[in-house]
Known about the structure:
- The chain folds into four domains: 37-150; 221-391, Rossmann fold, CATH 3.40.50; 397-458, Orthogonal Bundle (Helicase, Ruva Protein, domain 3), CATH 1.10.8; 468-691, Methane Monooxygenase Hydroxylase, Chain G, domain 1 (Up-down Bundle).
- Helix 2 crosses helix 4 (61-73).
- The chain has a five-stranded parallel beta sheet with strand order 8-9-10-7-11, sandwiched between helices. Strands 4-5-3-6 form a four-stranded parallel beta sheet, with helices on both faces.
- It starts with a helix and ends with a helix.
- The protein is of the alpha/beta class.
- The longest helix is centred in the C-terminal third of the chain and has 24 residues, at 606-629.
- 44% of the residues are buried.
- It is built from 28 helices and 14 strands.
Amino acid sequence: MAVSDRYLLKRAKLGRVAPCPLPFVARAMVSQALAKQPDLARAATRPSAAIVVEVPHEEWVNEVAEAWRELVLATEEVPNDGDDESLSTARWVEFRCLESSTAYPSRVRGPDGRNRVAAALARGQAVYGFSPDPSRLPQDLCRVADRTVWISPLSGERLRQAVSAYCKKEAKFQPTDEQAGLVMPGDLLLSVRPEPDPDEMLRRTVDLASARRGKPVDAPRLGDLHGMDAAVEWGHSLARDLSDYRSGQLSWSAIDRGALICGPTGTGKTTFARALAQECSVPLVVGSVAAWQASGTGHLGDMLRAMRDTFSEARKLAPCILFVDEMDSLGNRTRYEDRNRDYGVQVINSFLELVDGIENREGVVLIGATNHPEALDKAILRPGRLDRSITIDLPDAKALEGIMRHHLAADLRDADLSDLARRATGHSGAHVEQWIRSARRTARHQGRPLEHRDLDKEVPNRAVATTPETLWRVAIHEAGHALAISVLRPGALRSVTITPNAPNGSFGSVEWISYGPGDVDRNMTRETLVTRLAERLAGRAAEAVVLGQASSGAGGTVASDLAQATWLAVMGVSAFSLDADGQAAPSLWMGPIPPEDVPSLLAAQPELAARANALLAEGHQVAVDVVNRGQGQIERIAALLLERSSVSGQDVEALLGERGAARSRTSRKRPPSARRPTNQSVTRRLLAAYRR
């Protein structure tokens, strides 16, 4: 098997693999040592050569040994320790110390009972030992070693070159030697993204490495974060509690043990963890399911050992924040395929034991991050584990302006960024950081300070690629959601946004306060369930009432309004038995259903489909009633959306309060032909402002 094939970063969630950056960095480390000792390669390949290779950390042992084989031995041959014949025919013999708790005996015997080091040297074989501590290698090897080679941590320049080679693109950013020296394999693995940008990867790597040592590099504070109000509010509360815990005023049992941070890619989940650690003045320990899976050989034992080591490091540094990324890659025990079940179940069980088992986790606040909370095993979310769920959605225009200000620092201090922020609506904070970095590069290459025009060229142009009629329909749809949430759950609406040119192709979005993964409240009643359904169906209802008929905008993918409402209705029947009046005998429990499994389940069980459909009809009726009472307010919210692109929940509720939208009143019915489908004059005027 080729060396490049042996290093694959498994993407369990997506069922595919991506190249791993570790070989590139390990080769750079070995090349750095070879450059310092020009005759090292020749000395190491002589007959009966004995070389001790001291690596910076045990996590680098395997990577350095493989790079040594490539660069020094120039072979893909793997020595096999299994039998006497292989020992006598291999070109070399090697010893690797992979754990700090283990060491070789002073004299190692081979399968034939002979002193293995002496026998290899007598046959003319080279003998190599790889360890962060030579005293853990066979002492016979250390006694006879021709050389002890120190594989030093990478310099900043070498790390830049290695990441550039991995990304196949030249990196401009160069870490300092101190920053590069902190980098560990897990930091690199956590920094891998699809189509990686070398500068972004380098910055992310050194930030993670420094933060893991409790020394964040330019880590933001919670007050610097924008567009994640719920997360910031909880973070401030946790910081106060941890301060009281350290001073002895508060017991550990009174503190939140952890939280699950959910949201799309690039919304700042990792940044929030760094800022939280900075705010709490505690170290940040970083791990990820991908890094655990890529540890060692990737076998179950290596995976579990890496996971235990991460939790062990956190316990040693307590109080601290333990951040675990890609939580959904752990999977769900109810959905494993037969061939992966044993592996997956043991991983989940071991994780649960570390989170809430016999070993004490006092002082360790666990923060999990995921883009897909619905894919998590429910046991992970129970009280005492990750019992709090916080959603970070894409920022609105106001938050985007704050993010721009933060990343610009002292640049463009007096510039008006409101138009750029409005154009950026629908993009993430990561996009903003990328635009500003590119704008600075343009100014730097031209030998001048950053100017507004540099950033203006980077932010996507808000050319509306749709008709005014379609845009008005989108605004009405999102305004319907906003009205329903504001009326049915005052204070829950965060913002409502329309974005025709969003990166994901979505035309609009609504951010509200959720109650957990999938917005399922643990204490949900039948009335609560119907309210949730009404909130999701209100966009379609608004189109039907205000514009005369609904469009396909509410349907489509598993993330669409209709799909989510149907899933909630099925859950109400199959998992919660809430389709009755709450007093009748419960129906048979069928368990929670993953959203993607709903269509096949409904096709196979017509009775379940009928019961879920009845709940949907009830939720739709509530949505229609709310929309009928607030039809005028829906049009006002829609007009405001065309003007601003994004409207906060406070502004929506203020608008409703002005007109008394929460009061029940009878709407004057108009036939479809008399209803104003597009309000052409208003729409065109607002679109002109919208495009400016």
